[in-house]
Structures are given as C-alpha cells and as structure tokens.
Amino acid sequence: MANLNVVLPILIIFLTVSSEMKVIECARIFTIINYCKETIWPAIFPGENFNGGGFALRSGQAIVFEAPVGWDGRIWARTGCKFDKKGNGSCETGACGSSLKCQASGQTPASLAEFNLPGGLDFYDVSLVDGFNLPIVVTPINGKGNCTVGGCDMDLRTNCPSELAVKSNGKVIACRSACDVFNTDEYCCRGIYGNSVTCKPTFYSKKFKEACPSSYSYAYDDPTSVFTCTGTDYIVSFCAFRNQQSCTYHDHKLVCGGGSHSQGLKLSIGRWWLLVLALPLMVNWWIV
C-alpha cells in the first residue's frame, strides 16, 4: 500500500459504455476495485448478481455490478488462489470451498464488507470479527444521510500478534480472530457473554479497533461500526485508503467521492465518459 503522505497521481481514463446498458431503478451500483499490488479473487455471497459470486481481479482493475433492492450479503477478497479452467482450485485465504464461484460464506480469517439493502435506508459495515486478510474500504456514492466511508485501510498483517498470525512461506498472510484461535465464550461472545452487556472488548479486539476504528472489532461493536445511507451506490476498494477518491458510473453520469463523507460529484459528457481516478496505476474497467 502507498504511504498516506504520498499524493497519488490523477490519471485520466476514457470508459466506453454501451448505450444498451440500462440501470434498474432503485438498484444499487457496486464498483469493486483492486488497488493491491497482486491479483485478488473477490468473493460475493449471495452472488447471483455478481458474476456468480467470484472472479479474478488483477491489480488496478475495477468491475461494476448491479445489486437488486433487498440484497443482503457480504463481499470479501480471496488471496493466493489457483483455479483451473473449470473454476476448481484453492486459495490461501478467504476460500469458499474449492470453487471460483462462491455458493457459501468464506473461510476465516477474512475482512468482510457486509450490506443489508431492504429498500430505503441501507445498512453497511466492514467486519473484522472473522479476522483480517486484506485492507477493505466501503465508499457510499451520491447517497443521502450519514453515508460515512467505512472500513479498515491499515494492513493488520504487519503487526498481527504471533498467536493469531497465519503464515505461508514464513510470511504473514492473514490475522485470525481471538474467537477463531481460542474458541472461548468470552472471545466469541456466546454463553453468558452472548449479549451487549457482558460481551466487552478484549485485548485483541482493542488492537483491531485501534488500527481500524470504523470497523467491527467484536460481535457487539455496533455503535461505531454500522453505517446507514439512502439511495446510494457503493465502491468496495481493496488496499485503498478511506480518504482516497474513487469513481463509478450511474445513470449516464460519472460519480466520484472520497473522504469521511461521500455525497459524490457528477459529470456527463455523452457516450464517452471522462473518468478521473486517484489510482497509482492505470485501471482497467468492465461492466457486468
């Protein structure tokens, strides 16, 4: 990841959009961007509207989907994957069985972006309750209400406690949750700890919270972790910063946003869309 003090260059990219593309009224546009240095395999469950729930996304690529009203699901990244031409294979982190297309939630540890879109007021968060494998940021675009940029833009693998660390070839590739490692009622917020009164932050959840204050660090971390917005689209960025500007396409307009609150900026210039992205490298876009 780039240093926060480094000003990323503004790259101008032209995006051709088919005139046949129609945006479903009230649908939510999801733009998934890979700012990481390596290829990742985003996973979505349920994924019927997201290319079957899984695909490869190379460094610098972005992809746009439409999610219907009522969608309730999660998005995460898989790393270190190898799939054959039939979509069968394995991943070092975040695997959902042996398939490229996810039919269930992924294995822990994984950083999760969670969404509940009942129609009207949306609810969204980034959760580290199941551990961490990649930085992930959720940016609401052009919505109304609180519309806070949420997520974890710190790489927790760099200072993961040794007892929680997942390693491959001597390198920390993920950080497990205390519940996953120790499996006690206190760490897992179950039994007598299964409510908001008795389930309190632990040494480990506090370390996660200090690094990523706008993410879920334990099961009852609601007040500072769940955000709401109305009529918004979403950008889900991996290895990005919360104050980083990103753009998406909606209803024949370019919409950009970033910072702690994102209301968006619209530009419309015909069938060719001038896309200005604060990315450290050229971005390839395609629309599903």
From TrEMBL:
<keyword id="KW-0964">Secreted</keyword>
<dbReference type="GO" id="GO:0006952">
    <property type="term" value="P:defense response"/>
</dbReference>
<feature type="signal peptide">
    <location>
        <begin position="1"/>
        <end position="26"/>
    </location>
</feature>
<feature type="disulfide bond">
    <location>
        <begin position="81"/>
        <end position="91"/>
    </location>
</feature>
<feature type="disulfide bond">
    <location>
        <begin position="160"/>
        <end position="175"/>
    </location>
</feature>
<comment type="similarity">
    <text>Belongs to the thaumatin family.</text>
</comment>
<feature type="disulfide bond">
    <location>
        <begin position="147"/>
        <end position="229"/>
    </location>
</feature>
<feature type="disulfide bond">
    <location>
        <begin position="152"/>
        <end position="212"/>
    </location>
</feature>
<feature type="disulfide bond">
    <location>
        <begin position="179"/>
        <end position="188"/>
    </location>
</feature>
<keyword id="KW-1015">Disulfide bond</keyword>
<dbReference type="Pfam" id="PF00314">
    <property type="entry name" value="Thaumatin"/>
</dbReference>
<dbReference type="InterPro" id="IPR001938">
    <property type="entry name" value="Thaumatin"/>
</dbReference>
<dbReference type="GO" id="GO:0005576">
    <property type="term" value="C:extracellular region"/>
</dbReference>
<keyword id="KW-0732">Signal</keyword>
<feature type="disulfide bond">
    <location>
        <begin position="96"/>
        <end position="102"/>
    </location>
</feature>
<feature type="disulfide bond">
    <location>
        <begin position="36"/>
        <end position="239"/>
    </location>
</feature>
<protein>
    <recommendedName>
        <fullName>Thaumatin-like protein</fullName>
    </recommendedName>
</protein>
<feature type="disulfide bond">
    <location>
        <begin position="189"/>
        <end position="199"/>
    </location>
</feature>
<dbReference type="InterPro" id="IPR037176">
    <property type="entry name" value="Osmotin/thaumatin-like_sf"/>
</dbReference>
